[in-house]
Amino acid sequence: MEKTALIQQPDGYLNKTPIFQFILLSLLFSLWAVAASLNDILITQFKYIFDLSDFATAFVQSAFYGGYFVVAIPASVVIKKLNYKFAIITGLVFYIIGCSLFFPASHMATYSMFLVALFAVAIGLSFLETAANTYSSMIGPKEQSTLRLNISQTFYPVGAISGILLGKYLVFQEGASLEKQMALLSPAEAHVFGLEMLQHTLEPYKYMIMILIAVLILFAVTKFPTCKPEVEKEDTAAENPGILDTFRYLLGNKRFKKGILAQFLYIGMQTAVWSFTIRLALHLNPDYNERTASNFMIFGFIAFFIGKFIANFLMARFSSSKVVFAYSVIGSILLTYVALVPNMSAVYVAVVVSLLFGPCWPTIYAETLEVVDSKYKELAGAFLVMSIVGGAVVPAVQGLVSDFVGSMQLAFLVSTACFVYVGVHFYGEIKVKQAATKAEPIEA
Model pTM greater than 0.85? Predict the structure, then answer.
């Protein structure tokens, strides 16, 4: 039987999905998940080594997601001028450089140097996410773009679980919690002990560097389709708009702006919940140490993984907007429980909330991208990746609220408010789509 040739359509989508390239592309989602989940480990580790407030610990996420904000547009320009593959290779190189910076950071033993290393990692990840999210949605038939991105995102929790396991066994140590151990030491002894603990933060990044080099080589030797819209020579100026024209178009697109805000708040909420889950477990059960409390993050990412499969199943039968709206309503109720019920059940409910995060990012991303004309997609994708800066802002706000009200648990209401907005956004999308369906002419 003759195989169907791979054909790129004028809008950049393909007639079929090249399986090997799609799998390799999807593996990138697990690689940036490792880095993101290791941040949750670092926040807990740095809290006591550097004697930080909850607001200050959130700077780990601020440095990390701030890198996305700064680099997303330059990454989109690289994609527009060159291609997705080149942007991915660039991202992998910066990712390797960022991991390597953890070595001088551990010897300098300053919080600021670790933030610099995390910012460098984020530069690489911004290239990867700006390229891979849009590329995944386009590397196949257009009608399957949202489903394809959801499938790629299923690789994310695999990487997230791997990152937590690396942190649990390579960064966190046996025995009492860091807080209890350091409380028994003199200032001089605590300083020496802190330096020893910082050396453990290097271990996960050693393994990551080796894996990243292998993936870099695979991408370098594999041929990928361009998946970029065709441009007629006589219409080059009109069909290939500049950054300012694209910015004006996007600024006037109300649905796109609402999608950007939804993505900003969703990523912020997800990051905040995951950043403070280990701390919440340590707070509600003082007998736990960091290694034991990190189990809840493993359970959370398993729930996240399961939630994606459930969402993919539901999206094959119902509209993606309705699925995410339902998830948002349930998630808002559960996060309210996490904030208000002062016992260990709140931690278990926080784990269940991760199940409801599953379809949010890829669905917001793909559906927001769908309301944009194809000639504006590269920069539109960059703005969507820039909205990840919510991961820098919302955890810091939640940490600030925690310090102000004196309750890290009550501060989870910040995340609750974010999930409420996501639900409101998708309720609006459902109404828009219903109105559009009614307005379509009925064929005779």
Answer: no
